[in-house]
Amino acid sequence: MRGQFAPAPAVSFRPAFAPQSRWYSEQPDNTATKKEGEEAKSEEPAPEKPASGESEVVAELKKKLEAKEKEVLDWKDKALRTVADFRNLQDRTTREMKSARDFAIQKFAKDLVDTVDNLDRALVMGQEKLKPAEGGEKNADLEAFYEGVKMTETNMHSTLKKHGLEFFDPAGEKFNPNEHEATFMTPQPDKEDNTVFFVQQKGFKLNGRVLRAAKVGVVKNS
Description:
Blueprint: H1 31-43, H2 52-102, H3 106-129, H4 140-162, E1 165-168, E2 180-186, E3 196-201, E4 203-206, E5 209-212, E6 214-219
Parallel strand pairs: 2-6
Antiparallel strand pairs: 1-4, 3-6, 4-5
Helix pairs in contact: 3-4
């Protein structure tokens, strides 16, 4: 029919971009974290690794240092031992010199002891002679002689004492086998056992060491 519009032809509409289906992962995305960690690590300076030649040199130096330290300790020990030995030698030498000085006159003192004994015997006998007989008078000359001998003995004892030689009389003391020589034993009811009641010969000491033991009589009641 003229005068009527003919129907427009059917145009199919197709969108320019067709929607596509998307899939989403439930795990968190660590890509950014890993990248940040890698960047942080890359910023830190990497430790320098010593060359193989350098490490061998250091090891060799350490080995030599240990050997030297051990050598120093050995020499220190030797030095301390040497000092100790030297001090011991000094002490021993001092003791030996003192002993030699103290007992240098030992032989002379032994020979002199007999002279002292003779003076002692002379004084004992002179004292008996000084006793006047019944109705008799004292002998003035004999008394003067006795006093002179006694003074000689006193001076001799004083001189010997200056040089370390002393006599000892153990009468009334306990018997000491280191200082006394028992020549006989006898019972004494009024005295204790092992008591020195008689001195046959006095003893002598040189600087504290017994030069001659005293000969004594000892009480033995049992």
